[in-house]
User: Which sequence fits this backbone?
């Protein structure tokens, strides 16, 4: 059965990685300005914002998700996150907490690299001033490449001999080595194509193998750069330098601590704030807008009011949001995740549970290149599928790839007494996008 997508958060100690995790989840990862705040990898549930099916069918008032939430057609869907202990240069040689950090990333489908663009922490996470954070981007990628290369090159002699002896295809010989990182044959094939290596595998030297490994890392671990601490005075200069070297689609400007602050104020009843939004309303704002009760919000004291106004000036007004929600959306976009909405009743969009009139109770995220059969097994387990049909009763192959914009499909299941049961899946939605 296909597993759920997993997004790993990586970065050096004190980069704000744990704060970023906390801003995306309800987890309480330990936070501190010292190396190895996170000793053990922590899995947590984040919430990805997508466009909900209820908006297209004009039933937003009855949309009540079993998990996450939906607000006026904007749905928060659970997605699994992995917080890995801070990396330091030389981790592939055992420095810091060694290869354990890198090994914890093996099954991540995408990475969020949290980069401290304030320049106030050095390569090992110690306090400093004037550090160049663009260096962190290069060494983190280098650590992962050297880790995978070291594992592969150590066995390269025997890999070549077996490859020649059994006359295998390059992808098959390499899959046996890369499968430990959660790679499929398709990923290996794309990595070989990306590397542009034309010589037979048995002729590859260490430079060729390193070139392959770099291509494999790009394919297996697409990475979003979360440029964190954008409210620091030195951030603009460092962001400008990074922007010259990195493609814009990989970068998201963010302030994780601002997002945590806003969510805390909202939970305590001081402000009205929707995660990732551009605006935040206080009691005074709502009264000025015509609500004499001020939305039932509490009055901010002078200290909180000053801090909130400074945060608005430095983050919300300058950048349009704290950027944290957009970081997760960008990572999901790199994976090409497709939201799928299973329903029991194709007319009411209900789940079939009792007399409830709630719609679109469930939503699952499937990976790019998933097939119709993969999605069926993910949702229904091992229930035997009799056949699948699309709009107008057209039969659909289980091998057909699920993609945004495809028609809704109906799964007809065969029960023990050979009667057919049906379940509808709606694929016709956009992938997660930046808000």
Assistant:
């Amino acid at each position: 059965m296909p597993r759920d997508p997993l997004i790993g958060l990586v970065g050096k100690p004190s980069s704000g990685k744990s704060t970023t995790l906390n801003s995306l989840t309800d987890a309480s990862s330990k936070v501190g300005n010292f190396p190895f705040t996170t000793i053990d990898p922590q899995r947590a549930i984040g919430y990805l914002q997508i466009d909900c099916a209820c908006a297209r069918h004009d039933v937003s008032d009855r949309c009540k998700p079993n998990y996450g939430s939906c607000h006026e057609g904007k749905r928060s869907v659970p997605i699994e996150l992995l917080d890995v202990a801070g990396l330091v240069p030389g981790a592939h040689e055992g420095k810091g907490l060694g290869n354990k950090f890198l090994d914890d990333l093996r099954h991540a489908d995408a990475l969020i690299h949290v980069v401290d663009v304030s320049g106030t922490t050095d390569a090992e996470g110690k306090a400093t001033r004037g550090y160049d954070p663009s260096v962190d981007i290069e060494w983190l990628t280098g650590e992962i490449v050297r880790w995978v290369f070291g594992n592969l090159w150590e066995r390269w002699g025997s890999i070549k001999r077996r490859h020649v002896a059994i006359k295998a295809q390059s992808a098959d010989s390499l899959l046996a080595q890369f499968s430990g990182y959660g790679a499929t044959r398709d990923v290996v094939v794309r990595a070989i194509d990306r590397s542009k290596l034309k010589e037979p595998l048995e002729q590859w030297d260490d430079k060729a193998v390193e070139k392959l490994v770099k291509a494999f890392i790009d394919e297996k671990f697409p990475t979003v750069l979360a440029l964190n601490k954008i409210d620091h005075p030195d951030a603009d200069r460092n962001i400008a330098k990074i922007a010259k070297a990195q493609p814009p689609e990989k970068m998201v400007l963010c302030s994780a601590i601002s997002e945590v602050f806003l969510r805390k104020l909202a939970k305590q009843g001081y402000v009205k704030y929707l995660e990732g939004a551009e605006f935040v309303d206080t009691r005074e704002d709502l009264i000025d807008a015509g609500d004499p009760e001020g939305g039932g919000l509490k009055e901010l004291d002078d200290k909180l009011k000053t801090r909130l106004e400074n945060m608005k000036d430095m983050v919300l007004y300058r950048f349009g949001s704290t950027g944290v929600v957009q970081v997760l959306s960008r990572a999901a976009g790199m994976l090409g995740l497709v939201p799928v909405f299973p329903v029991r009743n194709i007319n009411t969009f209900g789940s079939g549970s009792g007399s409830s009139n709630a719609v679109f109770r469930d939503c699952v995220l499937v990976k790019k290149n998933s097939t119709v059969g993969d999605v069926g097994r993910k949702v229904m387990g091992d229930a035997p599928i009799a056949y699948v049909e699309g709009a107008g009763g057209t039969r659909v192959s289980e091998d057909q790839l699920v993609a945004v914009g495809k028609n809704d499909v109906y799964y007809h299941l065969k029960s023990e007494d050979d009667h057919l049961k049906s379940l509808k899946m709606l694929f016709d939605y956009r992938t997660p996008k930046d808000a």
About this structure: The first helix runs from residue 17 to 24. The radius of gyration is 24 Å.
